[in-house]
Amino acid sequence: MNKELNLDGYNSQELINGLQFNNWTALNDSIMGGLSKAECSLNADGLELYGNLVEEGGGFVSCRSPIFNPPLNFSKYQGLQIHVEGKGRTLKFALFCQASLFGLTDLMADGLHWVAEIPTSASGLTCFNIPFKDFQPTIRARSTLLPISLNTSCITRLQLLYSKFGTPGEINSSFETGPIRFLLRSINGFY
Question: Domains plus CATH for the chain?
Fold first, then answer.
């Protein structure tokens, strides 16, 4: 059963209706010397990620939320339902959370996050449920062996990515360079 997210201090109706995308920003491989250029912007249908993807020097584009303070609390839900137009590509959705592993996660800053794949339909809208148990801890697109769990009660950031890397450590079989245009319509919680 789908349900609006309980955001403890955030307007859940705004989040569900796409207004939460107002302050999302692009983050691309250019931060590590890559040549991809993508932007994200809000339109009447949701958050659009568009630009040009180049494999050399990186091979990823993304849009991410601002840091939520206080963090979002998704602990009442089994997972997230993502509505996205991905044109047949396998996208990734990432969650960042406040976590503590004897202080080690503080040293990883933005590096540690939990990622799940979203296979999309070639045309139209894809509605995909991602149980929280399917999110895998990663650092820079590689799986980690750290004994750490996703804490859904303190989500600090959300991110939609398209990358040459799929499941941590694997190549994304749907990866293509060139012009991209994806639309993230909504994010819902499900029980």
Answer: 2-190 (2.60.120.430)
